[in-house]
Amino acid sequence: MNRRLSLALVGLAVLVGVLFFAFARGFGRDPHEVPFMLKGKPAPDFALTRLDTGEPVTLAQLRGEPVVLNFWASWCGPCKLEHPTLSRAARRHQGDARFYGVVFEDTPENARAFAQPMDPSFPQLVDPHSRMAVDYGVTGVPETYFIDAQGVIREKYVGPLLDEAELTRRLRALSGPRASGAGQ
Amino acid sequence: MRGTVGYAFVLGALLAAVFGAVVGIEGGLRRRAGTRAWVERATSAFFLCMLGANLTMVWALVAHDFSVHYVSQVGSRATPLVYTVVSLWSALEGSILFWGVILGVYLFAFMRAQASRPDRAVQLAQGAMLAAATFFAFLIAGPANPFGAVVPVPPDGPGPNPLLQNHILMVIHPPMLYSGYVGMTVPFGIAVAALLDGRLGEAWLTTLRRWTLLAWTFLTVGIILGSWWAYAVLGWGGYWAWDPVENASFLPWLTATAFLHSTMVQERRRILKLWTLSLALGSFALTVLGTFMTRSGIFNSVHSFTQSDIGPTFLVFLAVVVGVSIVLLAVRGPALAPEDALPGVASRETAILVNNLLFAALTFTVLLGTVFPLLREAFSGVRVSVGAPYFNRMAVPLGIAILFLMGVGPSLPWGRADRGVWRRQFLLPAGVGAAVLVACLAAGLRGAGPLTIFALAGFVGTVTLRELLVPAWARMREKGERPWTSFLRSTARARRRTGGYLVHLAMILVFVAIAASSAYVEHTTGTLGAGDSLQLGAYTVRFLGLKEGTEPHRRWIAARVEVTTRAGARRTLEPRMNFYERSTDPVGSPAVASTAFEDLYLTLLAFGQDARGDTASFNVWTFPLVGWIWWSIPLFVLGALVAAWPQRRGLPALGQERAADPARGTA
User: Domain A47-180 falls in which CATH fold?
Assistant: First the structure.
């Protein structure tokens, strides 16, 4: 009995040791991090309408210019925070890149009520039933996609973009060679 | 100011816990006279300080004192009062603070309950519990201090996590679960004391069982409420996802359930002593593991709190708990030798032993599935996830085997069964089980899994009702009492037995509900314009239009839906999407139309407008019998209360024929 007991306990201790090793290795990484599969892949095409004029916009017609797509919603506080940064950047980089906002899970009225007082310097698109958001793998708002002139997704930024220098750096990378596209 | 007051309370609690742990264990081991009074003072001080700290935090939350770190994280002037108070346990630091006060209540209650027992084991147990309390007080005072000062003081805060202010169940589910978790500290202390003392007598075993039963009951209710919350709030149409944190609550439940059974064998035969103690120690270690999983930030789960650096501290504590347990079992274990041997194969003892093995296997299976992604990543760097299919494939057969044993065990006598037992005890229940199977087949139900469970439920239900009612019936015939009187009297004479069988009945309900709701679920999705309808089973779902609303802490959009059953009954449902400022995703609120036998479950997936007006996309499910899972709660609680209710002295309780001192061994 005594021997069996010690054997069982030693076995248990070894198992627990292995488990603890695995736990200790797990610290410092983010289990919520979702790998972004579309990075370096051609951006899925979309055909949406503008929130203000109702004019159709497709990705194909934007080919040849870098595109920045920002998904937002009127109910999203962080979106409100980042909007001025994007708005300024869109104005400053006119000609280098086209900026579009995409309204995520929202009604057009609410989106208009949100966008008008903000005076965005770039057009907003309506995405009925979030079809485009699903194609692009949007996990929440705000999220910002950087697409190069060849229509390839270089990276995506999750969360509010509050630092204009950061945004500028990512825009520069868009016109550089593909390998230099920094991770999200 | 409130921050300083609160922190002073936390420091007081830490001091009391350290002092009480040292005096309790050292004084107990050396049998120093007069030390127990000091341990009791330390326990009271710990309790009062924790209570003070928690009340201070609630005060700061209600007063919107954003100079307190925790309030600035979870408080918001827009949050309704009830959710402001509840936000005490809605984030990491607050939940550990709340843990502290529950621990204080348990320690205080244990002290009061054992006040008249002059046993040194009591003091050792209190010392061990205060040692655990020391860790939590240290955590609150250091790595997870909620009372830190915020400078400059912000004018408002973000409010609690939206998922946690979406449903009233959030008010009671966490306290229940925490009471279950924290409650396992008491059996841990008792088991450590038994090992340090080198004795596990009848009376101490009773104490151990009672406190485990208390924690087990809270844990059971907490788990079921949690599944109900997931069902009512998360909107993915399920109640259990084998999420790491769900598993974390399930693991100690499994070992505690195994404990409650093995303790009966120990009482009868005085064997399995070490095993029983290991289960008590293991249940506590698994609750600490569960807490670690929720709070370390290394598991991916809906429940996990934000990334935090208290993980390593928790891991050290877990290592100490497991290490101390193993060393104590190794060093003191041989003192608790078995005094008897297992009787024949066909005996209740053997059935319970097999039940314990199955519970252990299930614990291991769930634990392995939960930690496998971490193991894999630690050793090969590959990130994998273990999904529901693994758990279902492994757990369902084990669950079915356990259900089967729930019928076999109670039918077998203690000791050795004679040959006639099969005919006498099994013929009728097996017949009922077969009849249930035939009835289900005749009703058109198919599927090996659910039909096995329904047939077994018939078998086990018959056994359980027989065990509950036969004593009453015998008494009725013998004494000429009315049925109800004789039932109550026979129950009063064997409370643990009656309570246990009531819990078995509740468990059968849960088994049947899980089998039916997962095997016979129906699901459809559709996008509807205003006035359109879709059909699912006996229901017609017609979309009427969208509706918007604003509350202080959120905005929402609801789809108005008219549900018509085949019988013609109409109901309006409003599945919603809620929008919280701080959230990056809308939070859905499903709408459920419940009947006794089926739930219609509707979620709003997306909405929009087209030329004809509003449109909305829905997920629609029907879940047969799903409500039985939560409706089993009163039966679980009733059974546990009946089993744990103090027996008047002098009435012989079950299993006391062998007790050395009947007056002490009451359950």
Answer: Glutaredoxin (3.40.30)
